[in-house]
């Protein structure tokens, strides 16, 4: 159905700005007036972390980045310098506490000293590292700190267990507004508030090629000053698999098949309403999916149904079509710009933007990116050896498949061909990792 430009503008706005987090501006204004800003501790000072520090420091009254930890202090110092802030160095929890109490931005190479320090109201994980992120998150939960994680790699691997631990400890562990999973979560909550039953939560990608490597992605990473392995994980399908698994685990959805449908579609996301079997979606209880090339990009979409015939008439009147599937979308995700919303939601409202309420529903499993000889030490996420594919947790457990977040450092016991999904039986695990223990604990806790 052709639409006028006005109708297109109206539809482009449908969904964003709707979540209850909009009240955070009032809370932040009050905090600024009262001189009691939320004091954020940040672990990781890469591209996204530096953007977050700059944004909070220049645009978010009522909040400040009180302390930054990074394994190389120079990167943490760069984050403050680029934001126009003078800083001090500290190596102990006591020295960090003193700096925070005095309102002096502080840099440390010891994340655990930062977590142990007094005066931090919320921790933000911007590392993207699975093993180190696990240690940081566990320590923060044990300390009683709310945690906002931008670490999708960790969240997908052991997020349900960490969320369980956080609930037990009485603290909030949440994904971050601005990244696609939480943007979908806000949209899903909005759609449910309309009485619409969501059946598809989707992600819009511009490009995907499972065989991309750090070599092919180096020019793009260099241009934007980003980590080349992170960029590779965006293009080889691993990151979208992590993101959609996180949404599935938070909302009880599944995947319709290994890898999701992942269609190529250059039209509008509204047109996707005719590409799904509603009865199949209902049988699944809702699915996660993605589409390559659709518009608006780089946004997210939710497709849902309404059971009330009278309300379906209203939805048609309001230009959502005749159903049975109705399309809702957010046309962008603004990453670090939206993270302060999550911090306020966690600290002042005890509200998680996105968190799994129970056990895992979807995993991301490691798949060979090339023919791999026996003895290969897998280079993990965004590398040369493997890419991640979404699979139902039931299949992952039944077939003993190797989670992508576990794969780094594993040694192949046998040769495998390209596109083979790896299993635990194929590898030897590195000794002494926390993430392996957490994965076992998660499997045991949520065993059917």
UniProtKB/TrEMBL annotation:
Gene Ontology MF term list: NADP binding; oxidoreductase activity
CDD domains: SAF_DH_OX_like
Pfam families the UniProt entry points to: DRL_cat (PF21135), NAD_binding_3 (PF03447), SAF (PF08666)
InterPro entries named among the record's database cross-references: Asp/hSer_DH_NAD-bd, DRL_cat, NAD(P)-bd_dom_sf, SAF
Domain (SAF) ranges: 363-428
SUPFAM superfamilies: NAD(P)-binding Rossmann-fold domains
Highest taxon, organism lineage: Bacteria
Stated name of the protein: NAD(P)-dependent oxidoreductase
Organism listed in the record: Streptomyces nigrescens
């Amino acid at each position: 159905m052709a639409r006028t430009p006005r109708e297109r503008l109206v539809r482009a706005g449908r969904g964003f700005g709707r979540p209850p987090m909009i009240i955070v501006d009032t809370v932040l204004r009050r905090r600024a007036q009262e001189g009691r800003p939320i004091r954020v501790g940040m672990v990781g000072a890469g591209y996204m972390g530096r953007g977050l520090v700059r944004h909070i420091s220049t645009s978010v009254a009522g909040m400040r980045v009180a302390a930054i930890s990074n394994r190389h202090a120079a990167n943490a110092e760069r984050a403050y310098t680029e934001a126009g802030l003078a800083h001090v160095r500290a190596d102990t929890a006591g020295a960090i506490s003193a700096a925070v109490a005095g309102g002096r931005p502080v840099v440390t190479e010891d994340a655990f000293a930062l977590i142990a320090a007094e005066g931090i109201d919320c921790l933000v994980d911007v590392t993207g590292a699975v093993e180190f992120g696990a240690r940081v998150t566990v320590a923060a939960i044990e300390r009683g700190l709310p945690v906002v994680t931008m670490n999708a790699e960790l969240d997908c691997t052991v997020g349900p267990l960490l969320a369980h631990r956080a609930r037990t400890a009485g603290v909030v562990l949440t994904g971050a507004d601005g990244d696609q999973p939480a943007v979908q979560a806000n949209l899903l909550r909005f759609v449910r508030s309309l009485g619409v039953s969501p059946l598809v939560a989707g992600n819009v990608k511009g490009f995907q090629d499972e065989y991309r490597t750090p070599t092919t992605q180096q020019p793009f990473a260099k241009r934007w000053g980003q980590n080349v392995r992170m960029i590779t994980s965006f293009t080889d399908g691993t990151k979208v698999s992590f993101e959609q698994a996180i949404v599935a685990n938070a909302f009880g959805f599944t995947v319709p098949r290994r890898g999701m449908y992942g269609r190529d579609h250059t039209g509008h996301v509204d047109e996707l309403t005719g590409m799904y079997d509603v009865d199949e979606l209902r049988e699944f209880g809702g699915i996660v999916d993605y589409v390559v090339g659709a518009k608006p990009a780089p946004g997210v979409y939710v497709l849902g149904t309404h059971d009330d015939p009278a309300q379906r008439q209203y939805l048609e009147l309001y230009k959502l079509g005749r159903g049975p599937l109705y399309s809702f979308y957010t046309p962008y995700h603004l990453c670090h710009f939206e993270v302060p919303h999550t911090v306020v939601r966690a600290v002042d409202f005890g509200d998680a933007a996105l968190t799994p309420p129970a056990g895992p529903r979807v995993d991301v499993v490691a798949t060979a990116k090339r023919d791999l000889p026996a003895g290969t030490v897998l280079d993990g996420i965004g590398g040369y050896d493997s890419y991640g594919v979404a699979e139902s947790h039931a299949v992952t457990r039944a077939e003993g498949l190797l989670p992508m977040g576990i794969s780094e450092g594993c040694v192949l016991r046998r040769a495998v061909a390209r596109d083979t999904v790896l299993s635990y039986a194929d590898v030897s695990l590195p000794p002494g990792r926390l993430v392996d223990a957490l994965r076992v604990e998660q499997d045991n806790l949520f065993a059917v």
